[in-house]
């Protein structure tokens, strides 16, 4: 089995990376029948791991067994390599949820990621931070002959239709700077965090399937990671 290692990651907190990593993992596993491992490297918070424990505590053992939830492991800078090797070749996807800052866990984790997806909005500070983060990854990971990293992909998160002209202008500016942008976007919707960020269930089958919706973004993530 070919294992792909991917991560939705940002250099600062509050950009939605953890929410999207959880929803991505759940939909790949439960809706698309992919074998998934989610690594929580956000030490010491470990918010995803703790969320999974809370969700499991509400169910009985037989229900959990029927659901076959994908594994979520806590990792540190010291344990991440051994954990990846333990699952490598046994799952389709390893998804890393990394800290929102360039600390030792993020740097160590990025050594193993093949495809990085960076969310950002239209805020000026976010734009500057994201472009700087992209070039940091490009110069230190992507342009390295011994690199594992194959692609860095930026996408609009918290996309607002009322600001579509602003987002279109930003896309043009980034593309002129040879910074790769994904075609799909993630809209600004509270339902993603309040209802869909679940480690035991996917997005309902009849929801979020349109051209501007979340499932389209996940389809593009799969396409990029399969290249």
Helices and strands in order, then pairings?
Blueprint: E1 4-8, H1 17-31, E2 36-40, H2 47-57, H3 61-67, E3 72-74, H4 80-87, E4 93-97, H5 104-110, E5 115-120, H6 124-142, E6 151-156, H7 164-176, H8 191-196, H9 214-225
Parallel strand pairs: 1-4, 1-5, 2-3, 2-4, 5-6
Detailed description of the structure:
The chain is of the alpha/beta class and 227 residues long. The protein is 43% helix and 13% strand. The protein contains 9 helices and 6 strands. It has helices at 17-31, 47-57, 61-67, 80-87, 104-110, 124-142, 164-176, 191-196, 214-225; strands spanning 4-8, 36-40, 72-74, 93-97, 115-120, 151-156. The chain has a 6-stranded parallel beta sheet, with helices on both faces. Strand 5 (115-120), helix 6 (124-142) and strand 6 (151-156) form a beta-alpha-beta unit. The longest helix is centred in the middle third of the chain and has 19 residues, at 124-142. The chain starts with a strand and ends with a helix. The mean pLDDT is 91.
């Amino acid at each position: 089995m070919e294992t792909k290692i991917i991560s939705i990651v940002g250099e600062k907190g509050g950009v939605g990376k953890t929410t999207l990593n959880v929803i991505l993992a759940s939909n790949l596993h439960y809706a698309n029948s992919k074998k998934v491992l989610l690594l929580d490297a956000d030490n010491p918070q470990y918010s995803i791991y703790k969320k999974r424990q809370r969700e499991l505590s509400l169910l009985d053992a037989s229900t959990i067994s029927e659901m076959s939830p994908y594994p979520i492991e806590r990792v540190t800078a010291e344990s991440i390599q051994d954990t990846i090797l333990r699952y490598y070749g046994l799952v389709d996807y390893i998804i890393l949820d990394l800290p929102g800052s360039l600390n030792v866990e993020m740097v160590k984790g990025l050594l193993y990621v093949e495809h990085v997806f960076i969310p950002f909005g239209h805020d000026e500070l976010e734009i500057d931070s994201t472009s700087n983060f992209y070039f940091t990854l490009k110069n230190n990971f992507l342009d390295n002959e011994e690199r594992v990293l194959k692609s860095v992909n930026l996408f609009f998160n918290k996309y607002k239709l009322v600001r579509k002209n602003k987002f279109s202008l930003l896309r043009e500016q980034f593309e002129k700077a040879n910074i790769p942008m994904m075609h799909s976007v993630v809209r600004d919707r509270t339902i993603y965090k309040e209802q869909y960020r679940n480690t035991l269930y996917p997005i309902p089958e009849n929801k979020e399937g349109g051209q501007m919706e979340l499932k389209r973004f996940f389809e593009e993530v799969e396409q990029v990671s399969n290249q």
